[in-house]
């Protein structure tokens, strides 16, 4: 039932993706008023439009990460047999590939056929991992200070 209720939202998201690619902020900006006109108006009136937009953007990002119905996208059947075991070990079916236009999520099968995009995705993921490790170290330091007091 929920999926049927949101079918208009998904259709608008697909239309926006055709124009803007898999850029969640651009897709969100394009569809938010059209998909949820009453909610958008109420959010503006009540001053929570930013929170509403962030929620819609999260939903758009999750939708974008799923393989598109677009025929341009490959499936896991298109991955070379020697790469398939490595691809199946990954924690996601799509990864963020930054670009000058903001970047997009690209499916693993497509990454297996485009070394440049795969390289960009792995470098981006590594940077994010290093950021997480630095933040974990700061939390460790804070924990040590709190427990020593």
Main attributes of the structure:
149 residues, mainly alpha, 2 domains, two-stranded antiparallel sheet
Number of domains: 2
Number of discrete helical segments: 8
What is the structural class?
Answer: mainly alpha
The proportion of residues in beta strands is 5-15%
Number of strands: 2
Q: What would the average pLDDT be, to the nearest integer?
A: 86
What is the terminal-to-terminal distance?
Answer: 54 Å
Short description:
The chain has 149 residues and is mostly helical. The protein is built from 8 helices and 2 strands. It has 2 domains: 1-65, no CATH class; 74-149, no CATH class.
What would your notes on this structure say?
It is a single chain. The chain has 149 residues and is mainly α. It has two domains: 1-65, no CATH class; 74-149, no CATH class. It has helices at residues 2-5, 7-20, 24-35, 37-46, 49-65, 84-88, 108-111, 115-148; strands at 94-97, 104-107. It has a two-stranded antiparallel ribbon with strand order 1-2. The protein starts with a helix and ends with a helix.
Strand-helix topology:
Elements: H1 2-5, H2 7-20, H3 24-35, H4 37-46, H5 49-65, H6 84-88, E1 94-97, E2 104-107, H7 108-111, H8 115-148
Antiparallel strand pairs: 1-2
Helix pairs in contact: 2-3, 3-4, 3-5, 4-5
